[in-house]
Amino acid sequence: MAIRERELRRYCKRLLRQLDIQPPLRVEELCQRLGQHRGKPIRLIPWDLPVPGPFGVWISRPDEDGIFYQRKTSRVHQDHIILHEIGHILADHQDGGGAEEDALALGPDHPRKLITRRFNRAYYTEDYEREAELVATIIQEWAVVIDYATPRTAEDSTLDPLSSALSARWGWT
User: Fold this and answer.
1) Could you tell me the residue range of the domain that residue 74 belongs to?
2) pLDDT tens digits, 37-68
3) How far is 63 from 20, CA to CA, in rounded Å?
């Protein structure tokens, strides 16, 4: 997995540069830009997922990707759940089976039509779950470090050019 981890880190860095994601990280913006980049929108759907059970489910359809995430948790946890499901997308994971069972777990109101792939986040025993978690962690680490290291703008906008010239260059280099 060490080789795969290095590949995923490089791929995430390259992709975040291409998407021009700047701190602070807004998961919704990341999903919108990633969907545009891939030519397939990513729809974020808060859902009352049953507990115990998966915190998130990625359902891929020909025309869009849907990420269902636990509505009844903190915003920070929701962001991590979404980033984990994004990890499955970025790592190009294939269906692990059980799409119908996951759709049923979402409840009777879930639109079940044309599910082509799915992943749920309940266990970390499989390599693809660890890879997805790694991608979520890479993105969150980047967001925290870059947000912390990015100089704040001065109150006086006339100082912006000076501040920019003197500040360190941070980001995915």
Assistant:
1) 2-144
2) 999 999 999 999 888 878 888 888 889 999 99
3) 24
